[in-house]
């Protein structure tokens, strides 16, 4: 779900130059109402309002009968340049504007914030629709349709030339789409048309026309390539029936089947992407005001450009279906004929050679095919698909329809390298549903979300009437998943017409615009569970499980923008319903939402959720990734002054515009004459003054209410801040009262004394533990300890010493790593050599002792006669010292 970062940016707010893009200018408060009330059919218009279109970051805006163009990043850059360097005036020409405390003056007749695109259109423009190739734009009024050739972006954005630019336009159906004919309900560009030049128009009387427009052939705009009356097609029994629309509105025959066939809106089942189901982009859905939905499949021009996956997937699907139907004995005649027609249609396509290839880009090659001629170009009308059952008793008044195409079955598509590369780049396509998702809106602002489990496939009428043939099966109703309310029924206006807008980020989210604001709807919370259930091979109990899912479905709904409800009705008129919003994804603007209401822009900058880097692709960054804290969204948008404060009064020019020339001299005299003419002039002046003062009063009252609300909010914030300050003062003790502060100081003093006692107790315990442990070892004792340890290691080995010092010596000795056998042999040899040396020394000592003992036992007569002579004196002192040194050395070695 996108979070709101900010509302209408400063570079689109008054008095910046970007505000003038949507503003009609400083004109009279009564001028708009007088012009708009000049023709009756304009006030009776009830239909979609799509007067904002975009081509990348470029926007095309309709203001009255005027088309304005602007590049939003350029507007933003110019505003930032003036804010940073006030002395630098932008190259824009216009009626002057203020940026902060700096004023920029310009001529009153031009405005450099936008560029005017002139088109010879005499009625208010209701819809703008840009072609898929972004070279053409359909301009739609209530009854007429024009196609304009759009200039290149470089030409429009030329800074040295901001003069109005005249567009080259073509009238579509100069005898068909006129004021005397039914109004235009919807205008669409065919997603599979050749070079994106095929236009589809649907009128309110349920007549569909396909125009194969070409700038090289001017006659292509005079008559449609295909025209079908859905009321006649609904009751047609074969291809021989006349389903062409009547050329005049007179002598129309009433039939019961024509009841409830007033078209409200239309939409193609797909946008022509490669991951869509094959029949989606060639299926036209038409929603009727009474609540029924009809479908035409396939609805194609004479030359069309399929995607790389349409033909292979169609061939695979139809062949598998044909094989399965041959095994079924209970197959109806209708389904058998349908499979045969589909197989024949696809075989004719496979036998064709592409007419030519148009390289839109170096890596993108589009092939053009002819529509198969073996079957009629106009298919059978499928439907009606009902949202609510007849038992419900509820009557729907539909205003718009939006289709999300089903996902292409991966098993039926070719797994080439290009498709694998695309799947790696677009992981979101695996999250789609295998069936179409249908969204419907009503004039009361209610949104119905449905799915078509069976899907729509190609069907044709029989070639000849067959009285004995069974009627086609009744279409199953759509599965209603959820119904959402985006507006209270009492807030709906008489001319209410909610419209959908596609989200630029995800196909499974959209925006709906009506008089109360703009709402965001996302189907992501329940999309995965429903997809898992639909892709399950076990079909037993599917209906029961889907019913359980329906009870747990909760679509994400959020209000993005709210429109002011205090605008006087005299200023709205045909602007009471805001245009459908446009979502733009641009590196300079971000995720940007734009619409307008009452000559004022309404915008919001959204923040899409950022996914952390995948650990499989970059494991080093996955551990260091940290989610940034969420931004606090603004509580409400900034106040925008209404146009009533800036509109000029018509009273100074009232006499010149509303008083007859013969009475003007009388009105300019100092003393007025009491007459009927004077009374009429004063009455009309009072009406004008009442309208102007009412508009000013309403705008001032709205400002006063806002100020009161802000004062109340500020008062509550001050009170809350005061309570928090009192609590802090009570804790810190700076309240100046002496009571609570003294208690805090006494407590702090007691805590300090307690801390000192604990420190003294700790010191006493530490000294006592020192006495228990004993004195420290002296230097000689430490050396002797190290010497003993070294002797122990030399005798037992370092590994044996470590094993003996361990707590689990036996376990370590049993489970530890094996020793090197060569190291063990060396240690054993060294120990054996030492043992032999000790034995040899002991043997020598014994022999020497025996010799000394024997010599002492046999003393000489001379020695025995000498008094005081000891036996030890017989050993020479030098020999004794030598032997003692040898013994010490041996001990030192051991």
List keywords for this structure.
894 residues, alpha+beta, 5-stranded mixed β-sheet, 4-stranded antiparallel β-sheet, extended
Would you give an account of this structure?
- The protein is an alpha+beta fold.
- The protein has a domain at 654-732.
- Helices cover 34% and strands 20% of the residues.
- The longest helix is centred in the C-terminal third of the chain and has 57 residues, at 676-732.
- Residues 409-431, 731-752, 795-894 are annotated as: Disordered.
- GO terms for molecular function: structural constituent of nuclear pore.
Q: Return residue spans where pLDDT drops below 50 for at least 5 consecutive residues.
A: 31-42, 89-110, 359-363, 412-430, 611-619, 621-631, 811-817, 860-872
Number of strands: 35
Biggest sheet: strands, sense, closure?
Answer: 5 strands, mixed
Give the % helix.
Answer: 25-40%
Give the strand order of the largest sheet, numbering strands 1, 2, ... along the chain: 2-3-4-7-11
Annotation field: number of helices:
22
Structure class: alpha+beta
Q: What share of the residues does DSSP label as strand, in percent?
A: 15-25%
Shape: extended
Mean pLDDT: 79
How far is it from the N-terminal to the C-terminal residue, by CA? 83 Å
* Integer-rounded radius of gyration: 47 Å
